[in-house]
Records
---
Amino acid sequence: MDRRFIALTLVLMLMLPGCLGTEEIDDSEGIEEETDTTPLPSIIAVPQTNGCDNLNPIHCMLPFPSDAFLREDNSTVTGLRVNYAANTFPTSGTLSEQGENVQIDSINLMDGMSPTTQIMTAFTTIPDLEGVANQHTIGDSLNDDHATILMNLDTGERVAHWVEIDARADDETATILFIRTLVQLEPNTSYGVGISGLNVTPSVAFQSILDGMETDAPDVEQRRSSITDLIQKFTDNAWLPDGNGGVKAAWQFHTASLDSIVGPMLSMRADALERLGDDGIGCTIESVKTDWMDDSQNDFRLIKGTYTVPHYLEWQNPPSLISTDANGTPQFVENAEVDFTLVIPQILADNNQSGPLVVWGHGFLGDGRGAISSAAIGWMQEYEVAMVGTAISGWSGSDMDTIFMGLGDPQYFEHQSDRLQQMLVNQMALARTFKGVCSDIAELVYDGTNLVNSSDVHYMGYSLGGIYGASITAFSPDIDRAALWVGGSGFSTFIERSTNYARFSDGFALPKAYPERNDRALLIAVCQQMWDATDAETWLQFAESGYGDQIGPFNILSTISVNDAQVPMISSDRSARAAGIPVLNGSMHMPYGIELVDGPVSGSAIVYWDGNYTVMPETNAAPPLADAGKAHNEIGPIQQVNEMVEAFLLTGVINDTCNGSCTFDYDTDQAEDWDN
């Protein structure tokens, strides 16, 4: 985005020399007139643009997140409100041609920054990260002599983190430095960020604050005292050791409250549950097929139809926004018919037995009807369960146009995120409907037996379904157990590390979109403020104890494939920390700060399986596309992995099937008779 530099007039205070009096002075005495030679105080000129954080001239939104984009508002829980100006967000090539700015109104309703935020800034030279904490030395970030600090300003505690340089950067004079958090920050909390050393130079504005020199930038002067106080807090905390080269950047921000993040969702949930009642509203069967797969012996009955869902979107098809009142509270629009697919495997018919019902969560950009009627049959046959599924709207195939429009106008990610919120209502209604009013429809019966036992409904999701499965499980009062395959949390923190980003990255960088790298990085970070309402990281924190009287506790088994190119392990690590669950002994990856336990486990755990796949980049550089599906997909049919998942899904117990080492060989360890 082109930045304007506003020239402010410098007002100089003129001092009038001399004394007033009537006495004559004798020139012959040789007395010379004295003049004051004290230099006038300088006012430092700072590049500045209204609506920007003028601490850093490299980009309007750096450092990020920042209290520069918060204003006081005593009507909110935090006493603050997000305050992005009309020109704060970078403008795409298309919008610039049209003379328009990016408008994302819902973000300014939030009472703070995202707890799952990315933290970043930039300097005019590439920072030297020698000795700085990385993914393998996270504990070093808590040392007094560490170059960076992330502090909870409410408690004075340091927050563990790691640091990396943007591997996607294309400008050495504006390369982003990321401060990577390990999990979401505390809600409604102030945080301070400090950077010292690194062989970089502070911005003119920040150096002026350090030197006690006045600037001509009003927003810098307004925060001068808070920044100097912040540096003093760091010093009082024993940070900024001698010889570190001095502090080079420091800023603070405040996170949003849970009420701001999930309040609208809980309001929509309460309204939807009242409309659904105890049994749901109803379903309509559109088609029933038997033996529809030519190359499988596991398919018995495929049922497609619609079920009735309370709808809060202004209209059903994307792009669409949730209808809200002036305060952002969702408003009911209508009852809508949403597609579902229910599949019964052959083994239930062969045994003339009723199998448990499992809600299925599909992969990235799926549709709720593809994988459940093909690839998922192997699990159904193996576990002797039936599955029902619907689209994970927001990241489904039908949302592709909205997502691509968002690459040129980020406002459309508001539409996309609202679809994700409606998705949670859809999934909740699916479980309730097939546990209730549609649990005994004729299409489920064979030879006098209802082949689907929906008295106890659980969830299983793969990839995208493994990511949003935690949110779906937390949101639904009828599901309390979820098997999550190759999932994670903190969508904005890992999306660039995923091969799934490749289909969007080129379009995002087009001249009509955002050719500047830093614009793209910051907009992805901004999107997290919209994604928080449905992100697994938001809902996983309720896994152990629930949330008030609205969200009940739930258990998860997170099954992870080491060197997954689609859902990176740093995302999986975050999800485990968010839920507060342990890692099973024998796992082939031991994340920092997560408890190690022996099996069996009655409750939740994360397990890392290693199939000896290509090591993925440790940076945010694009992972190799050739390996996109290997580690991610080939773990699915592995015998010992499925033995663990099946036992958990049906009994809630996580048995150790690793035999001391959670490894597998795709060529030799597949389950027998596993076919699609």
---
Amino acid sequence: MGSQRWRTGHHYRPPLGALDLVVRPAGGLDYGRLASHQVEVHLHDVTVPLASLDDIIASKEAADRPKDRHAMPVLRALRARLGDS
């Protein structure tokens, strides 16, 4: 691959809010684990598989970037609010 740099994700800002598409999540999370814990969201006529909240939290903890640390209190509060479901 030489000097070619591969992106680990893409960030979009559509009119209804920010959207991150992560290609290589931090923390050693692989596709098999993410798929086994996925949450399905129905948007109009499309079912969209999403990473579970716990997997998102684990990835952000492993990445440990300033923006991830900033998001952690909100994500943990959401997890507490949702409970173990």
---
Amino acid sequence: QTNKQTCLTKLGCQVTTAVFFTLFLASSPAFSASPLYDGVPIAPVQYGWQPDYITDKQLQKLDQQIQAANADQALQHNFAYLKAQCQIELAHWTYREVRTTGITEHLAQSAVHNLQAAQAKQGVALISAPSPGYPRRPFTQWQKLQQLAQQRGTVCAPQALACADAALLGAEYEYREGYGNYQKHGIHFLKQADDYLAQAEQQIASCQTQNNRHPLSADALFRFGRYQTQDLLPQGRVQLQQLAQSLSKSAIEQITVVGHTDRIGSDQANQRLSQRRADTVVKLLRQLLQQQGINTEVIRFVSEGRGESQPQVHCNGNQVTEALKACLQPNRRVEINVISRREG
């Protein structure tokens, strides 16, 4: 692919559209690589001296497969795919330094993991786990990456964030060796990480997002006083299905579901009911979005219960009658707030 953009050899990878990814700060889940990935054997890694090492031809073929997976440009802004690109390039680097510690094989497996995650529309960690044998070093750049992960607008900086993560893995690898050219290479990788973090910070700061509010009547969603999935009314399911369909083309960063109740009942009971309803809606909405082919692993979901604290209407009387219930109906609601990238 002639227009291939690599993360570790040049800066300025441009992002023209949003990518959705969740900003996990924990380690990636353990990955058992397939024995064969389109002709490239990726055996379980034995860290340290091992009988079989990945060859340069196998690395090249895996690199070609990563590029071929994006032939239709469908994955060009997918965070997991971008991470696979960065990691296979780092694997080329460690291979050229003739490392026999298993680091090259580990990076190849990680690239396969991320490519498979991209193709399956699954989320991956923003911050990679330390490479086995290369413990996490207290680089200030890791802290900066974590800080950026907490900010709104990360949907606009996927490639810079992926490249920064890979560059820091490279720095940890080089500094672990600790002498001669390795030290120089470590400084080189840290400089690259600084450049990518600065790029990400600028893209996040200039990212235009929008907050769309979707209020739904709790009476249409749930049976009166209930909150579980089996308590959802047919019309409530239809409303959530329609909402999921309308969001299928959006670059979603966060969905916040807020439950509200009327003043009938105790404060504690209403607070608990509103929170449970919000939790149920989050669970169902996640499932419905997945059915639309949306990678929900890259969306932050938040549920809040505010009980009776924010009424929309005020009604006279304290005796619970059908008339009072009807009057208070607007207060029984669920609000769904969607933060997404502003288009245009």
---
Amino acid sequence: MQFIFDVVISLTKLSDSSEVGLVVTDDAFMKKLNKQYRNKDVPTNVLSFVYHETNPKDFVPEGDENYIGDIYISHQQVEVQAKMAKMTDKEELARLFIHGLLHLAGIHHGNKTEATEMEELEDQALRYILSTG
């Protein structure tokens, strides 16, 4: 995962001293998070939580200055989406981790232009990772 993180750093404004948390969980927990934070009562594949949006700078604990957020990924969605995309589970997990990191870097897909930019960055990162991995 460190290699994927390094690739995304090279494509974004994230600092190479940035730190993230990654939780791979199940659909039931993702459904809870999706309901709680997005008011959607269904499981989802990936959720990103930007640390500074929920914890203002003056409340960042000592030693956490580089912590930018958490990414949650459903292993069940990884399996389903990998089959649909004819990818391995490992490739799909990498794609979702890239997606989550891009959100933490401030890149979103709220409109068509943003979605296109995000997809291009995802594809660029994944192609590089798969070609070297």
